[in-house]
Amino acid sequence: MAALKTEIIIETRALCYSYAGAEEVPPAVAGIDLKVSRGEYLALLGVNGSGKTTLLKLLNALLIPSQGEVLVKGISTVEAERVQLVRQACGMIFQNPDNQIVATTVEEDIAFGLENMALPAAEIRRRVDQVAGRLGLTHLLRQPPHLLSGGEKQRTAIAGILAMQPACILMDEPTAMLDPAGRRDVLETVKELNKTEALAVVHVTHNPAEAAEANRIVVLEQGRIVADGKPGEILTDLKLLHGLKLQGTVAAELAHLLRQRGLNLPTAILQNRELVESLCISEPVS
Amino acid sequence: MSGGISLGHYLPGNSFFHQLNPRIKVPSLVIILATLFAVTSFPALLTMIVLVFLMFRLARVPFRYLLKGLRPILYIALFALFIFLFFTKGGVVLFRLGPLTVESAGLWQGLFVITRLVTLVLFSLLLTLTTTPLSLTHGLGYFLKPLGRIGLPTEEVVMIMAIAMRFIPTLIEESQRLMRAQVSRGADFESGSIFRKAKNLVPLIVPLFVSAFRRADELAMAMEARGYRLGAKRTRLHEDVITATDWAVLLVVLVMLAASFYFKL
Ligand SMILES: Nc1ncnc2c1ncn2[C@@H]1O[C@H](COP(=O)(O)OP(=O)(O)OP(=O)(O)O)[C@@H](O)[C@H]1O
Ligand SMILES: [Mg+2]
Known about the structure:
Chain A is of the alpha/beta class and 286 residues long. Chain A is built from 12 helices and 10 strands.
């Protein structure tokens, strides 16, 4: 059991990547050593252009390393003939829900990856129904994608990945184009899968509140890892975050301002609830 | 409003007709259309109409879909009726308007022709209402397969058509949004000469193209991430198995065609 818990799904070694035609600028990914284990929920933070998307594409073999290597379940992404295994083990969700739905109905879209795996029709049917039931999409199976809400589209995309039975799901700002309801919808779905199926998650986000939901946060700057730790450590370290032009959660930022005004608050405040509780202790209601 | 755009007006359902194999449905429609052209008597035509209405009942298609489907041919039908009324002579004179007369042969023929037209459209409508554009494409793709032997990538062509269908509603929505944005900045798409109108469309078409190319790029990435490879063997969720029911349907329509010829209905 313990051995299973620490099974490494993704490992990168001295990973570098420069875009073609951009050799004179610093590489987009500049020497990253990262391990992602089974069941881990990792949030990737970093300002625009820090290399988050590039890193994710490297993990899914959409890009091939310029130097170093990426191992997904022990398979290097440069092994062209085994690339399908990498993509099956490591699914990717993109930011724009509209541009990743291929088929004209939800069920056919969920089936797309399985069709590419050349599974028999009966097996595809079984997996599509199972995953749709799991993600609450059963009543939408015959719907065309343009009639879905943003959250439903992203859940369809997640279902399409999940049906391929991956070990890890990579998400590049999956909620950036959604309304608050859709955002909650997607996050809860992913968190649930992470908990119950031990699905590893790598979640790129600009939203500190979303990052706070992870078990681990990795911060990138100019293609390098500059911080790696628990959300409680990273998101409350405002000196670090501000230095990187990032922000902590609302509660952490507010606690920081209140402390500057002389209020005696602990430094480990991350969530709104924690802030409220500390405030109510430090200023007992009369 | 724009949420209602759908291509080929497919109506989701689970009826007998929804479940027929498109590889059978498409040739069956062709045979039925041939039968429609073969029949020359009103009773036979009326039988066909009754048949198509029964089929719509069986497919559980609400009546308003029929009206909606027939609307595009309204003017053609009226025009055809008009031509027949005034220009086909024979029988008794029913009506006189100056030098023009309406004679009974014209009335009958006009009615016959538009009834035939309506029936024809209704049968076609039944196909598109009960078949997803995608399976329709796959059905048609099957008949294109022989072209694969002369080097045409038919599988890929079907994929391209399927993706086009997937994105048409999205692009229509987008163009409507762009149009509203331009109108709110004072653009005018309604008035002026045809050249002016064309010129006014440029600020619409350029961003639409830019966004379509960006979409294509992202979609290609998403497809690749899900293991799509050109030329690789794929299977399908909706495998085209032709069942006994499918063959039976084909047989029935063939018998109908044969009967209409044999008995000169
Ligand atoms: N296709 C490309 N060609 C050349 N350079 C690129 C390309 N895509 C990204 N870059 C560059 O690589 C660097 C990293 O970009 P990347 O998209 O990985 O950043 P990111 O962290 O995902 O940013 P964002 O938060 O804006 O999504 C940037 O400097 C960017 O300009
Ligand atoms: Mg990015």
